[in-house]
What we know:
Helices cover 68% and strands 3% of the residues. By secondary structure, it is an all-alpha fold. It has a two-stranded antiparallel ribbon. The relative contact order is 0.21.
Amino acid sequence: MTFSQPLPRDARPHRRVRNSVRAGLVWSLAAAGINLAVWLLASAIGIDFLVWPQGASQPPAGVGPLAIVGATLLAGLAAGVVVGLLGKVVKHAVRWVIVGGVVFTAASLTGPWQQPEAVFTSTRVALTIMHIVTGSLVTFGLARGIWADDRAVLA
């Protein structure tokens, strides 16, 4: 005697974009706190945060705590919107979120390392740490959210 089992439901229609946006903001807020701690520690040991946002032809600008929080939250918001829309379209969205998070985090590292020679290596290292913290926490949070959505529907 065999029992027929129902086909697994597709989790994609049940995902909500706002859940991904919320997850992106929550995890980017956590990343912003860690980035502020890195900024405070780096500033306390004498690392200045002067960078050239437009290239060497423009005057340098200082990276302060408000810019760090704003950039981190903007990255989490943008990632949340992209993941929310992606999660409605593709299967195995967790894989895509992880791969995309790694690629975008690696691409963001060009910012600190393509600065002119006048930017100190210590500044580049501190900014690199901030980029990695933001990328890894937001990627983890969004992948975890998609995974939880899939498991809730398939359970």
